[in-house]
Amino acid sequence: AAVDYAALDVSNDDYLEQDYLASVCGGKPVAIAANISLSLMLLATAWLYLVVLAQTAVLTVPLPGYTRFLECNMHEQAAFDAQPHCTHAMRIFIAIFTALILVSLARNWSIIDAFQRVVTVVTYSALSIMVISCAVGMGQEPFDPAISDDKVQHVPAFDFSGFPNLFGVAALCLTCHPGSTLMLRRMPTRKNATKVYAFSFVSVLVMYIIVGTVV
């Protein structure tokens, strides 16, 4: 069920997503720093989503008298300089999407809860497709030189030179992703949330170690 934000007691940190997770890990100072970091990350993420949506829209939705269907492929960096009218059209779509999001949030804050659920499902679906694609790619022959000049880079087995970075990657995935805190907020006690967080953190590390071992 959607969360009734109006009924939440915002004076209690347990009801706040990022505060709840950060308080479990390090108390109030960590919660303040985490909220600042999360706000910056969400702003950057929202801008990224708006740009991607606008790139798709300007390619498939023509503006009468200005752009044509499939004319503006803004996924290529060269198009920004070569087709300035397409760049302007993309900015128009960014403005439209921004206005729609702001109006939706102003009318109903519970849309945040639904948005997080959708984004979480889409994220895990995209990750599944990526993992399957990588697995299929590892089983194929290198690129045909007649098709591509790229060379396949084979990672030596048992190469753990980047292992220290895994802790940062796992912490970023579990701490900053809105879907993680949405799930942890619904835990009945801090003890349960800590167990879930620790299990998820270790699971991410194990997956990276397996990839580093077998690739």
From TrEMBL:
Annotated membrane-spanning segments are: 38-61, 88-106, 118-138, 166-184, 196-214
Spell out the Gene3D superfamilies in the cross-references. Answer: Amino acid/polyamine transporter I (1.20.1740.10)
- Is the keyword Transmembrane in the record? yes
Which keywords does UniProt give here? Membrane, Transmembrane, Transmembrane helix
Q: Does the keyword Ligase apply?
A: no
PANTHER family recorded for this chain?
Answer: TRANSMEMBRANE PROTEIN 104-RELATED
The protein in question is named Amino acid transporter transmembrane domain-containing protein
Q: Which organism does this record belong to?
A: Neobodo designis (Flagellated protozoan)
